[in-house]
Amino acid sequence: MSETKTEIEWDPKALLKYKEIISKIPIFHREIAKQVVDKKAVINAEERKSNLVEEPDIIRAFLTEVPKAFYSLMIRLMDEVGFDYKKYEG
Fold it and tell me: Distances from the Cα of 28 to the Cαs of 1, 11, 31, 32, 45, in angstroms?
């Protein structure tokens, strides 16, 4: 018998911003960005012992998982949707 893990919830406001960013990523990079950020945002929330993916989890996921070659695009998109990423930059 396999153990089923309950799916973690996403903060509705943060999820809307996240979906807006994803929709603005060039189509040929969109799916891979979505896959890696979805996964890492959940891991970030779990590491905080939270059952809710929140804005900082998503921002950290973008900052750690999206290749540096796309950094300026990512920052521009975070600005456009209102993600406050500056305090999470390394």
Answer: 39, 27, 7, 8, 28
